[in-house]
């Protein structure tokens, strides 16, 4: 994907360390961060300078390669990176891919690069498979950011949107703001704007209303971990969108690479849900009049707050999971097939109505 006309990935390896687009300062500023040590890589993940399940897997993989090059103890590096965030399984998939390459620094870097490239290829394939769900002017509702900032080069939920746009289908995207970190408002709206895709930002509470009024053809989100039975964890607020979609006969799809599937997690109830600092709920961060990041308090001093970062959508509410090998059912059989399967050749039958942006 391009930023200011330049091909850019959300994170990449350099001789100095791991470089990344600092997602904390978007959309105000495009700033490149540099993590020179394992600790700095871990902090970039924890502070959400880099975020999104597939991206943190890639960055963790490069972090472990960095440890080998710097002569940092491999086991300690693995442990430090593994405890940065608890929900997205991609984190450990990235670490394991590098660890499996053996102790050599060259081999570890090659494994991290291969893991990165495989995620790019998977995202591109997700876009191709998801394109079957689109007609001219399909109105998608998405939540959080599952675009190329979260998943190298294409995104997951946004990959089919970008493919549809390139195919001239003029997709339209409702972007829910995604409190408390506002990934929708800050990141998805920015990405779609850069790519010239028509979109409109809505308050989180407006999503069910738009679905009820027939203004959404398709709900499409990413995932941070998919359990063996097809239940899927994604950004807090995803479950309520899936419930509203089911109530009004609108299909709800998840888009995710197979690195997001965790067969060792049997059901959604077993997924660890990250709880972040309550201060993220008690405050709002944005840009001041001068375009500088600023944080303001929105609740009375002393208000207790709770900040679960993810929720779980049961497989029964998911019309299908768009993976790099095709669209699979969100069931135990579908997940088992996806993990063992080769590319599926049949295309999904879209259950969306077509329509123009409204
Ligand atoms: O807390 P984040 O921003 O890392 O969470 C990311 C999400 O939940 C995204 O919605 C997502 O779909 C997973 S990344 C494609």
Name the helix and strand elements from N-terminus to C-terminus, one letter apiece: EEEEEHHHHHEHEHEHEEEHEEHEEEEEH
Strand tally is 18
Distance between the termini: 27 Å
**Weakly predicted, low-confidence segments:** 345-358
Which shape, going by the Cα principal axes? Answer: globular
* Whole-number tally of structural domains: 2
* Residues in helix, %: 25-40%
How large is the count of helical segments?
Answer: 11
Family: Belongs to the EIF-2B alpha/beta/delta subunits family. MtnA subfamily.
Catalytic activity: 5-(methylsulfanyl)-alpha-D-ribose 1-phosphate = 5-(methylsulfanyl)-D-ribulose 1-phosphate
GO molecular function, one term: S-methyl-5-thioribose-1-phosphate isomerase activity
Function: Catalyzes the interconversion of methylthioribose-1-phosphate (MTR-1-P) into methylthioribulose-1-phosphate (MTRu-1-P).
Sum up the structure in keywords.
358 residues, alpha/beta, Four Helix Bundle (Hemerythrin (Met), subunit A), Rossmann fold, 2 domains, seven-stranded mixed sheet, four-stranded mixed sheet, 34% helix, binds 5-S-methyl-1-O-phosphono-5-thio-D-ribulose, EC 5.3.1.23, M1Pi_N, methionine biosynthesis
